[in-house]
Design a protein that fits this description.
The chain has one domain. Helices cover 43% and strands 0% of the residues. The chain has 3 helices and no strands. The longest helix is centred in the last third of the chain and has 18 residues. The radius of gyration is 15 Å and the shape is globular. The termini are far apart. The relative contact order is 0.13.
């Protein structure tokens, strides 16, 4: 089992929120899932550890949920772009600078 430093998680704005909010299930009404994502992103927007959360999700290639104010699709696009740049430069994507939350 891989262990990660979790200190930043204790300061997350999401700590008191319903965890299911950050892992929307697109079953049935897609609009409900969209509203759930919007609510989660609003919580992330003012979070003091948003950057650490995003870095964790990118480093571990988290495939699901809202992390660091990003959706899985947004993280996938960043990783894909990093991989393209890495191949073009002949470097490993993990050596590239971390993504910053906006």
């Amino acid at each position: 089992m891989i262990e990660y430093a979790a200190d930043w998680r204790e300061a997350g704005a999401c700590l008191t929120a319903d965890p299911d909010l950050f892992f929307p299930v697109a079953v049935g009404d897609g609009d409900a899932a969209g509203q759930q994502v919007s609510r989660a992103l609003r919580i992330c927007a003012d979070c003091t550890v948003r950057q650490q959360c995003l870095e964790f999700a990118m480093r571990t290639r988290e495939p699901a949920g809202i992390w660091g104010g990003t959706t899985p699709e947004e993280r996938f696009r960043v990783l894909r772009a990093r991989n393209r740049r890495s191949r073009a430069r002949g470097t490993d994507w993990a050596e590239m600078p971390e993504t910053r939350a906006s």
